[in-house]
Every structure is written in C-alpha cells, then in structure tokens.
Specification:
With 353 residues, the chain is an alpha/beta fold. The chain folds into 3 domains: 2-111 and 196-266, Rossmann fold (3-Layer(aba) Sandwich), CATH 3.40.50.300; 124-195, Obg-related GTPase Ych/YyaF, coiled-coil domain (DNA polymerase, domain 1), CATH 1.10.150.300; 288-351, Beta-grasp domain (Ubiquitin-like (UB roll)), CATH 3.10.20. Helix content is 39%, strand content 22%. The protein is built from 13 helices and 12 strands. The protein has helices spanning 13-21, 46-55, 82-88, 115-147, 152-170, 182-189, 228-235, 242-248, 255-266, 291-298, 300-304, 314-320, 323-328, and strands at 2-6, 35-42, 59-61, 64-71, 93-99, 199-204, 221-226, 269-275, 279-286, 306-313, 333-335, 345-351. Helix 1 runs parallel beside helix 7 (228-235) and helix 4 packs antiparallel against helix 5. It binds guanosine-5'-triphosphate and magnesium ion.
Length: 353
C-alpha cells in the first residue's frame, strides 16, 4: 500500500511523515520544487507478535506501507504540474494533512488557518485535474470515432463512460463515488485519476487544541485528528520511553497506528498471516478476496498449483494456544479455492506445481 502525503505548503506534511515513519527529515523548509521522500514502514499488529510467540519462527515479517511525503502541492490555484502529477498518480491513496495549529511564525499560503476551506480547496484542485484529463481523453476519443481508427462500438462505449465521468466531475463529485463495472474499472486503472483514490484527512492540531468539526463531501474519505509536532517528537523517542509520554499527554494510541488502521479501513484492506518454523508473515488483501487470490499474494506458484488451504482464525489460535490444540478442537479447517478470507486468518496453502 502506497500512501501519498499531500497538503498545502507548511501544513505539517514532513512533520506527520516523520511521525508515521520515525523519520528525521528537516521540517519548516519551504520548497517550491517537486520533491518526494519515501519510507517503508511495518504495519504494527499485535496479532503477528502473538502468532510468532506461538510458532517461534526464525523471522517475523510485518505487512508494509509506503509513505511518500510529497512537497510542492497547492497554491489554491488548481494547478498541479505534470511533474507533480507523476508523483501523485501511482499512489493507492492520499493522506491530506490539514493545518489546524496556530503559529504566527508559520504563515499560511491562503492567509488564514481554516481547515474546512483547505479540505474543500484541495478536493477542488484534485477534481479540476481529473476534469482536464477526462476532457482531453473525450476529445481524443471523438477524434478516433471520426477517423475510424478503432472499432466504432468500442470507441462509443468508452465515450459514454468518459462522459459519465465528466458529468460527475462537473457536478463536483469525485470519481470514487461512482459505481463502476469490473470492466470499466480495468479500463480506468491506468489513468490514475486523483479523485478515484481514497483520502484520509489528518487534522494537524496544535498542542491542546480541540478537534474542529469538518463536513465531508466525499464518501471515500475519513478524518483522523492528531498533534503532528508532538507525535513526531514521540516517534523519535527511544521505544521504552514512549508509553510514559503517551500517558503524560493523554494520547491513548500513537497516531501512526491510528493512521494505518484508518487507511486499511478506508481502502477496504485486511490482513492474513502465513507461518512456519522459518517465518511468520503478515500480508494484505482486499476484503472479500478468495483464498486463491490470497495465495497469489504470497507466491504465483501457490496460486497456480493451489490444492487446498488450512485455515485457522487468529482468535481461535490465540485462545487455544497452539496449532495442535486448534486441530484437535476442529478449529483448523480445510478450505477450497473459493473460501473468502477473513481478517486475521492464519493460512497454510497446500499446492503442487
Ligand atoms: N505549533 C505547531 N507547529 C507545527 C505543527 N506541525 C508543523 N508545525 C510547524 O510548521 C512548519 C512546517 O512544518 P512542515 O512539517 O515542514 O510542513 P510541510 O507541509 O512539510 O512544509 P513544506 O514541505 O515546506 O510544504 C514547521 O516550522 C513546523 O515546526 C504543529 O502541530 N504545531
Ligand atoms: Mg515538507
């Protein structure tokens, strides 16, 4: 999962990036250039630790999320440069850092601190960008139709799809709120439309600031509020000092975990695990994925040669304490390729190639 951190200049993107990745990048440096820092971080999951405790493998591999700190976005003019677009399109979703903190030394490009406006202006910028892309595509399709370079019925179908996109965007509705068929989704996947991507809004609060209420217009967005600067400082502490600080500042759970959890939820993702004496490994699949798809996530050979899967729910394994007991109690089930994976399943895939 790749999440791009976007937001207005000086909204605290790098601060939040550091908080999420335990990074040490310098903050407070305004850059007009398009620049991306990326970091891959483990998805913290106590279930993985518990399974490792039971199986005692040589190695533990957590699921991964990649964060990109994308500078150079948004002057409120709806202009996203080509170079910037190339950085935004490949992301699976966005984390929009919205400034809420007051700080006289840090001016806001739009002149005042107004989180709801920033959310709206950013949404409008992304929307406008998609609109330009869709209009360009429509013109090219109409050209193709006139010249007859491709089969007319195919081109007509695409024209009608892109007209639907255009109508939605003209009504200020993001593309993620449209229902697409599988075929349409495949066709659109290559375009990397910005309003197709889920959006997690991170309200960057100042110290002891209460959370402002934001009206959301998109269906596929969600809000997390955190104190960016404080979270960054906490993320940079030695691990054993963290619990004390969290308690001192009344934070129930580090922002890093909340952001990851909300991102999984927003993007309809879940975890499953594999484990043997060598390795316990956490993987990510879409909710509703079959065990055959899950096998493909682990290795294409496992998908190709899939025979059956042995599945035990994490809760059952944790309650019973070991695999032998789970088997004895009938909690280790044999499942066929159409089994729908449940969050937290420990799966052993039997395959033959
Ligand atoms: N008081 C306060 N200041 C913050 C907070 N978050 C960020 N800042 C300050 O705001 C300034 C900008 O923070 P950055 O994290 O560099 O912001 P940015 O969005 O990465 O900035 P650019 O990459 O230049 O667009 C720095 O001086 C931070 O110290 C916060 O939660 N509270
Ligand atoms: Mg920055």
């Amino acid at each position: 999962m790749r999440l791009g951190i976007i937001g207005f200049p000086q909204s605290g993107k790098t601060t939040i990036f550091n908080a999420l990745t335990r990074g040490q990048h310098p903050t407070g440096i305004a850059t007009a250039r398009v620049e991306v820092h990326t970091a891959v971080v483990d998805v913290p999951d106590p279930r993985v630790d518990k399974i490792a405790q039971i199986i005692q493998p040589k190695k533990v591999v957590y699921a991964k999320v990649t964060y990109g700190d994308i500078a150079g976005l948004g002057e409120g003019k709806g202009e996203i440069s080509g170079a910037l677009l190339n950085k935004l399109s490949p992301m699976d979703g966005f984390v929009h850092v919205v400034r809420c903190f007051e700080n006289a030394n840090v001016p806001h490009v739009l002149g005042s601190v107004d989180p709801e406006r920033d959310v709206r202006v950013m949404d409008e910028e992304l929307l406008l960008n998609d609109q330009i892309k869709v209009e360009g595509k429509l013109e090219r399709l109409q050209d193709e139709w006139r010249k007859g370079t491709r089969e007319k019925t195919v081109v007509e179908r695409e024209i009608s799809l892109f007209k639907r996109l255009n109508t939605s965007l003209q009504e200020q509705k993001p593309l993620c709120d449209i229902e697409f068929s599988d075929e349409e989704e495949k066709l659109l996947a290559g375009y990397g439309f910005l309003t197709c991507k889920p959006m997690l809004i991170v309200l960057n609060l100042g110290e002891e600031q209460s959370e402002p209420q934001i009206a959301l217009e998109r269906q596929h967005s969600r809000v997390v509020a955190l104190q960016g600067k404080l979270e960054m400082e906490i993320a940079q502490l030695p691990t054993d000092e963290v619990p004390m600080f969290l308690q001192e500042f009344g934070i129930s759970e580090p922002g890093l975990r909340r952001v990851i959890r909300e991102s999984y939820d927003l993007m309809n993702l879940q975890s499953f695990f594999t484990g043997n004496e060598n390795e316990v490994h956490a993987w990510t699949v879409h909710r509703g994925a079959t065990v055959l798809e899950a096998a493909g996530e682990v290795h294409s050979d496992m998908q190709r040669g899939f025979i059956r899967a042995e599945v035990v729910a994490y809760e059952d394994l944790a309650a019973l304490g070991n695999l032998a007991e789970a088997r004895a109690q009938g909690k280790l089930r044999l499942e066929g390729k159409n089994y729908i994976v449940q969050d937290g399943d420990l799966i052993n895939i039997r395959f033959n190639i």
